[in-house]
Structure formats: C-alpha cells, structure tokens
Design brief:
The chain has about 90 residues and is of the alpha+beta class. The chain contains three helices and five strands, in the order ααβββββα.
Amino acid sequence: MNKSDLMVALSKDTELSHTKAEAVVNVFFGEMTDALVRGERVEIRGFGSFKVNRYDGYKGRNPKTGKLINVKPKKLPFFKCGKELKDRVDIHR
C-alpha cells in the first residue's frame, strides 16, 4: 500500500471526498515528520513507534574503489513494530 492507496481507502471507509482524505493523510504524515524532526518519539498504540537514532561518524570504505572515506555523523528515523501488529502479521506460528 502506498500513500495514494491509503487516501482511496480512507475516502471509501469514511465517505470523505478524495480531496479531504488527501488532506487528512497529508496532515497525519506531516505532523509525524515534524515531531521526528524535533527529536520527539511518535507512538501509535497497536502499530508501533518511530524515533530518531543518532549515529557517530566513522571511517568507511568506498565499495567500488576500496578507498577509505570519512562517514559523517547522522540521524536516521527508526521504526519499532508494536506487539499487536507483530502478532497479527505472524499468524502462522
């Protein structure tokens, strides 16, 4: 499922117009993104949580040339699956 599919599903399930469903989805993801940019954790009960992990810089190697390079410190979003979602996905245990 992609963002457009989500908008269509929301529009069908709620009888919202496609334009309003698009606005709802955009606000939802926009607010999540803004919270992560501010360094906040985003938790959706039963689904999972998002947070930003910080990674120190390190010496790496260019896989094509083998040359040593400095990799700068970075921050990346990280998703941790919630127990309910994990249980629903893994129904064939």
